[in-house]
Design brief:
single chain; 83 residues; alpha+beta; Alpha-Beta Plaits; four-stranded antiparallel sheet; 4 strands; 47% strand
């Protein structure tokens, strides 16, 4: 199956959603290349970037599940690189 490289940008405004977010990311861990989290304490948000290499629908499902969490938003940028 063809895969795509993408980055999912996540903003967490509700700390109560972090546990569920980490659970979702753990479920998709086979597709995750790496992740970086930055706590922005002055604004009381966390900024997370997740690099993935996965089929298009897997990336969409991951981003959609993350974006449905309360106080969490997610946007995805895709590379033109396929496998």
């Amino acid at each position: 199956m063809e895969t795509r490289v993408a980055i999912i940008g996540i903003i967490v405004e509700n700390p109560d959603s972090v546990e569920k977010l980490n659970s979702i990311l753990h479920t998709y861990s086979p597709y995750i290349i790496g992740r970086m989290g930055i706590p922005y304490r002055e604004r009381k948000v966390s900024i997370i970037s997740v690099a993935v290499d996965a089929p298009q629908d897997t990336i969409s499902a991951l981003s959609g599940k993350v974006g449905k969490l309360p106080g969490v938003s997610a946007k995805t940028a895709y590379s033109n690189v396929g496998a």
